Amino acid sequence: MGVKSAPANPAAINIQRSVLVFGGSFDPVHQGHVALVQHFAKLLKVDEVRLIPAGQPWQKGGLKATAEQRIKMLELAFDEQLSVPYSIDQQEIERAAAQIPSYTVDTLTNMRSQWGNAQSNEEIALILLIGADQFHNFATWKNWQQIFKLAHIVVAARPGYSLQLDTLPSEFAALWQQANGAIEDLKQCSFGKTWLETDLAWDISATRIRDELQQQGQTRETTSLIPRKVLDYLQSQGIYN
């Protein structure tokens, strides 16, 4: 699919729908994931949320939970938790099952192509939500420059995070700075803007939760960080025992 260049006058485009895209391993799903999506769905006033569980992330090791288990955890965690519709997009899991590598640029391109001629892509704002760790690795992603032509990029930073562009690859830092604007800009055009949220109160690591569940089993701290229904499911499945 050909990707259109950013319009000269973004304010002239009438955005009909905005979609928040949030991907991850979700191994396991925790309260931070839910709070993060709730926060940005409300803040950005999106019309829809798409959750994208990873197949087999090429920059990470093996996952403990299966694809089916991670999908179930997302359903248990997010059902009735959002004020807007959400869906679990399984395209990366399906590609992994076919032994096809998944990259964010392919996922977003496929998402754009799904709408086809039914709606102009210029009327749909895609907002890709990533964490600060992903932000620092962004320039290692496949065709990362193309992502700026497919979606807006919003970074959710952990407490105490400070953006230092001089520590990033120069091409990426320049493109990020050029695209950076106010939060209102994300609803004025369909892609190509960046925004950093630095005032978040959550600092939850899925890796730490998983390690603690494996080493210590259920503790008061880990149970407070995992939605109750998800925790019950983890126990019934014995995923991290």
Question: Can you describe this structure?
Answer:
- By secondary structure, this protein is an alpha/beta fold.
- It has one domain (15-202): Rossmann fold.
- 38% of the residues lie in helices and 14% in strands.
- It contains ten helices and six strands.
- Helix 2 packs antiparallel against helix 10.
- It is globular.
- The termini are far apart.
- Its EC number is 2.7.7.18.
- InterPro entries: Cyt_trans-like, NadD/NMNAT, Rossmann-like_a/b/a_fold.
- Pfam families: CTP_transf_like.
Task: State the helix count.
Answer: 10
Shape: globular
Q: What is the helix/strand order?
A: EHEHEHHEHHEHEHHH
Please state the CA-atom Rg, rounded to the nearest Å: 18 Å
Largest beta sheet: what is the strand line-up? 3-2-1-4-5-6
Largest sheet: 6 strands, parallel
Number of domains: 1
As a percent range, the share of strand residues is: 5-15%
Average pLDDT score: 83
By CATH, the topology is Rossmann fold
CATH class: Alpha Beta
Euclidean distance between termini CA atoms: 45 Å
Task: Please give a handful of descriptors for the protein shown.
241 residues; alpha/beta; Rossmann fold; 6-stranded parallel β-sheet; nucleotide-binding; 6 strands; Cyt_trans-like; Probable nicotinate-nucleotide adenylyltransferase; EC 2.7.7.18; globular; NAD; 10 helices; single chain
